[in-house]
């Protein structure tokens, strides 16, 4: 052979996996596919208990949820102690890239789970699109989410976690575009994010899901670049070692 430019790509075998999971108000439906599903068990776990059922081949399997999906649930496909595939339902997003294999038939349920732990390192709530100093605080928080562990801004939810929704007369698309422009105009580099609307009992909540950019993201205050991190439910200025560590995540990253 003797050639250094030859590559061999090997795809590891997948005995079984979830192409789609659908979560409704009282049932969880899992579609299972695979090439070796003998002796495989499908199991749904939560803090106070679990349900399980044997898998007798590719197909659709259901778990009844008389009290709805419990916060911190874990669905796994396993053979003895080996996990073939799994999904965790901590908070569904927390700014993470959305898992397109999970379908929420009742979007309000998703929002309830997201709010279960209240505001914290990964969640900030706003009653409406903020103005003035409150707007600056929100953008600093978005920069902090992108710089470290990701997070979600919910607009239409009060600090006490009461879901009030966007004002009825508000143009949701216009408000979403307004926030997009704020992010593009003030963050360096622009943080990775996705905006979407969650319907909850007739109220609309705007979710800004911020992913981690793998480097530090700055808030531009005039000509000055400021760095922030999230500490509990608070956004605070980043310390020198935190900024240095952030840039070391990606040696090629530059904000200039």
Give a quick set of tags describing it.
19% helix, disordered C terminus, 256 residues, four-stranded mixed beta sheet, alpha+beta, Methyltransferase, Cobalt-precorrin-4 Transmethylase, Domain 2, Immunoglobulin-like, globular, four-stranded antiparallel beta sheet
Secondary structure topology:
Blueprint (H helix, E strand, L loop, with lengths): L15 E8 L3 E8 L5 E7 L2 E7 L3 E6 L8 E7 L2 E8 L12 E3 L2 H8 L8 E4 L5 H16 L3 E5 L16 H15 E2 L4 E8 L2 E8 L7 E4 L2 E8 L2 E4 L2 H9 L8
Parallel strand pairs: 1-8, 9-10
Antiparallel strand pairs: 1-2, 2-5, 3-4, 3-6, 6-7, 10-13, 11-14, 12-13, 14-15, 15-16
Explain this structure:
- The protein is an alpha+beta fold.
- The C terminus is likely disordered.
- A hairpin with a 2-residue loop joins strand 15 and strand 16.
- It is 19% helix and 38% strand.
- The strands form 4 sheets. A 4-stranded mixed β-sheet has the order 5-2-1-8. A 4-stranded antiparallel β-sheet has the order 4-3-6-7, with no helix packed on it.
- 31% of the residues are buried.
- The chain folds into 2 domains: 74 residues, Sandwich (Immunoglobulin-like), CATH 2.60.40; 135 residues, 2-Layer Sandwich (Methyltransferase, Cobalt-precorrin-4 Transmethylase, Domain 2).
